[in-house]
Amino acid sequence: MIAIRDLTFTYKDEKNPALREVSLDIPEGGFLGVTGPAGAGKTTLIRAVSGMIPHLYPGDFYGSVTVNGMDTFETSLAEISRQVGTVFQDVDSQIISPMVEDELLYGLENFGVPREEIPERIGEALRKVGIPDLRYRDIASLSGGQRQKTAVAAIIALRPRVLLLDEPTGELDPHSSLQVFSLLKELNEEQGVTVIVVEQKIMLLCEFAKQLAVMNGGRIAFQGETREVLAHAEEMQDLGINIPRVTTLSRALSAGTGREQPVCINLDEAEAMVRGLMK
Q1: Are 30 and 210 in contact (CB under 8 A)?
Q2: How far apart are CA 105 and CA 225, in angstroms?
Q3: Residue 1 burial (CB count, 10 A)
Q4: Cβ neighbours of residue 244 under 8 Å, at least 6 residues apart?
Q5: How far is CA 29 from CA 69, 94, 101, 188, 220, in A?
Q6: Closest CA to 130 of 176, 195, 174
């Protein structure tokens, strides 16, 4: 589905590359979580997969990015956007309508969705993100979290095959953050949507993402299945990246008991491990 090969990109008027020889493969129906310290290149990676690089952000581009057979360097941004939906970190830069319903309507009309389908798609998307009551609200009156959910709803209403999200829970409380990731899991598992999400809330990533990519200095430091990447917990901490407390617990118990414990990635696994040791 998505193949990135030896991608190096330097923004115009910048001296240092934002991405350095990045290679990634995300299969159709994959769910990749991306994390790393500030300035690691995470947002640039999202821009490259979405086609905004090189079409909106000029610079020196080496390597290739292919999405569902489309070379993003050679394919128009309009064509890419019919299959790839993106939720930016700064949602205010992507919202263009004064009312919530109009924001969803704008994209659906521009993509030529049949008029008889539009009301159902709008209602469904708003329900999925938990804001059906905001349908007729002015966007200017919404909180940051409500605007973030509106941006997510506007994208999923288009039913993209690939969904890219850059810090989608930055303005959300823990309950709403969990709600967004639960929605991503539903889209991924039930509709086969390929998901790439940049997120600093590492516990959420480990709970929901099938694979993790840890970035540092424009490079991929670690990548693979979530549990495999968390085996590098010490190196990740050296990069300034938080790791889940349940992973810290399993590592501490391994050291304290002298018995190697499995790397835990969620609360259920940690509970099972502790109960097993207590027996």
Answers
A1: yes
A2: 38
A3: 17
A4: 202, 203, 206, 230, 264, 265, 266
A5: 15, 26, 29, 6, 21
A6: 176
The overall longest dimension of the chain from CA atoms, in Å, is: 65
The DSSP secondary-structure symbol of 58 reads: -
Give the CATH H-level superfamily of domain 2-234. Answer: P-loop containing nucleotide triphosphate hydrolases (3.40.50.300)
List strand residue ranges (DSSP E) for 134-259, in order. Answer: 162-166, 194-198, 211-216, 219-225
pTM equals: 0.91
Sorted by where each begins, the domain ranges of the chain are: 2-234, 244-279
Please tell me what DSSP assigns to residue 167.
S
* DSSP SS3 for 211: strand
- Strand 2-11, strand 19-26: pairing: antiparallel
Per-residue pLDDT of the chain (279 residues; tens, 9 = 90+): 899 999 999 999 999 999 999 999 999 999 999 999 999 999 999 999 999 999 999 999 999 999 999 999 999 999 999 999 999 888 888 899 999 999 999 999 999 999 999 999 999 999 999 999 999 999 999 998 899 899 999 999 999 999 999 999 888 888 888 988 999 999 999 999 999 999 988 888 988 999 999 999 999 999 999 989 998 988 998 988 888 888 888 888 777 777 777 788 878 888 888 887 777
Token pair of 24 as six digits: 């990634």
For residues 164-198, one letter each, b for 16 or more C-beta atoms within 10 angstroms of the residue's C-beta and e for the rest, the string is: bbbbbbbbbeeebbbbbbebbbebbeeeebbbbbb
Instruction: Return the residue matching tokens 């480990």.
Output: 206
